[in-house]
Amino acid sequence: MIGRTPRWIVPIVGLIAMIWIVPIIGLLVTSIRPISEIILGWWSIQEFTLTLDAWILVWDKYPLAYAFWISCKIAIISTIIPMLLAPAAAYAFHFLKFRFRRLILILIINAFVLPNQVVIIPLFRLWRDLGMIDNIWSVIIPFAGLSFAWAVFLVKNYLEDFPYELIEAAQVDACGPLARFFYIVLPNSLTPIAAVGILQFMWTWNGLLLPVVFLRDELPLPALLARIQGVYDRNWDQVAVAAIITTIVPLMVFIIFQRFFTAGAQTKSGSKE
Amino acid sequence: MACTKMSLAEIENSGGPSGPPKQELPVRVRKQLTDTQAAWFLLTPLLLFFVISVVYPVIETIRLSFFDIRGLAPERFDGWGNYVKLFSDPNFLSSLKVTFIWAISATFFSVSIGWGLAMMCSLNPRKTLIFRVMIFAAYGVSEAVSGFMWLGIYRPDYGLLNGILEGVGLSGWTQPWLGNPSTALGAVVIAYVWTQVGLPLMTCFASIQSIPKNLFEAAYIDGAKSGSVMRYIIAPLSLPGVRVAIFINLLNSLKAFDLIFILTGGGPVRSTETVGFFMYRESMLNFKLGYGAASTVILLIAVLVVSIPLIIKRTGDAK
After folding, report:
1. Best residue in B4, B33, B54, B313 to probe A by mutation, most A CBs within 10 Å?
2. Which residues in chain A are classed under CATH 1.10.3720.10?
3. Which CATH number applies to A61-269?
4. Does the ipTM exceed 0.90?
5. How far is A260 from chain B (nearest CA, A)?
6. Which residues contact B132 (CB under 8 A, 6 or more apart)?
7. Measured between CB atoms, which of B16, B140, B307 is closest to A250?
8. Alpha-carbon gap, residue A269 to A258, rounded angstroms
9. Based on the structure, what is the number of domains in chain B?
């Protein structure tokens, strides 16, 4: 596209990319070789046997299927909430006039910078008093609450270019403010809603801090992985399988939808090219 | 969403204050919601989540930071006590130093590597697509999983790094990378940079893609080499993307927790303990909630200072 490319570009970038995926390859190889060979290093080639033992044994050894189910529940519920509520809020902020509009908007979109650590202690005390420790909602509520900062911003940014004539036409045809949202704005802003969903799904699936603090037995995959790594044993092949299962879902989502991320990352940060 | 299935009339009647039916009118006049009513109807659920998980905890963290709370014992007002203790606690001071080194070096390396790669890729976007996805994929890997991958590289007995060093005859350099206080922080930063480079790569790449193409044509017609195109066109004009990347990476690295938790747990001898992790240790493992809260307030102040330009920009955008 940009014209005369020097020849060294593609091999150099290729080489860097190859080095970049060495840890991922290491993980895959570790999961399909017997433990006696991994001990010599997963790259060693004196003997090379492939085995699926770890893939079969791991399900009995660790509650992997259950953790997978918990992960699905947490990630899906905490993704759906902002996908429903963020567009509604963005519409209200962008097209409706009401008191405190600007104040609330500024509060919400600037919460983007808050570290998760800031909300941990009060929520821990709150959940403890309510008896909600080890309840998946103790994780879902902050996951959803913390997502609005960028989710609302992302959708609202998209609405800046929304043709106002459509809204006016609907208004003339006697559409109330809610009908204008459900019939005009919502069906036409599926792109940013999808971006919100994909990003939020990845972050909630991968999140470790909140589950580690708020959950005890109902552990999602990353927290389970952290726990079984802490127990010192040499089942490296099985932990590798657990790690692959932990990361396969978000990685697939990520690779399939990677085009959305560029847009997402840009809008999220407030740069408007 | 059941609402989309409703007719117009049902929606307008469902939420609105419906007055007495005016039978005498020949045409039924539907009462519409005012903007204010509709706005609060749409916003209330979100605000509930927001207040519970952001507004209340932030205020409460600041309040708790002035109290002495140990486990379940009743809280005792302590004034600035926690803060005084924090700044005379060598562990906290060391965690401040670690956070500073961590944030600066992680951001510097992720953004410069990502930017460099983005500039190279932009010279041949089509052929490098697959490589961009490969590097970007690391950003999609859960930090817990990346931690496990890098354990396999750093392990003292059969880790890849020591294996390579022995292979090229540098056995003297092999060491327990994560167990040695002087190398642990560097090792964790490298692993963290590995996960993060994808983001600056993508923002910078997008920024380069939006440079008007006729600039390149003009440059090539004037006989510019690709080196000078990079130096005088791509580099300066992709700065908006670079700035975005610096902000996001700096903010993310200040909050970092997951990778440290998996790789070193803050050790050895707290050499990889950031403020974010210090808070976890003090409040969740040592049950000193007030003390932990005070350390988070410091973290919050650091984050706010870093993000002032971002906050001003976003506040200005909030029309």
Report:
1. B54
2. 61-269
3. 1.10.3720.10
4. no
5. 11
6. A17, B117, B121, B201, B202, B205
7. B140
8. 17
9. 1
